[in-house]
Amino acid sequence: xxxxxxxxxxxxxxxxxxxxxxxxxxxxxxxxxxxxxxxxxxxxxxxxxxxxxxxxxxxxxxxxxxxxxxxxxxxxxxxxxxxxxxxxxxxxxxxxxxxxxxxxxxxxxxxxxxxxxxxxxxxxxxxxxxxxxxxxxxxxxxxxxxxxxx
Length: 150
Known about the structure:
This protein is an all-alpha fold.
């Protein structure tokens, strides 16, 4: 089933790749090269390969709040309302119909080229897993629903 999900999501990622570019060529190269083949100045990459959580994964919004504060708060603000470093995620631009969950996974894994706001490019989030991102997304979606963003 996981293989089926991966085959199903691969075309979606390719379509989304056309919507927003990774911030630099290095990120593009990383996306096209298996983690086991990546090299750094110090030798092979120690960054684990980013994978989507399994289909039956149950994301927990409260875990997402904590992970958000550890990994995203510096730029997006304590309650995802934005800062002078990054945009608010509790905003209609990020509603599920415009930015589905997979775009948050892609942003965490590959970074995002600036396209809606004037904050500059977002780099990939080092050390975050697909499960971590799923928890964060669950919390963001909960907060969006609380203010009427569906």
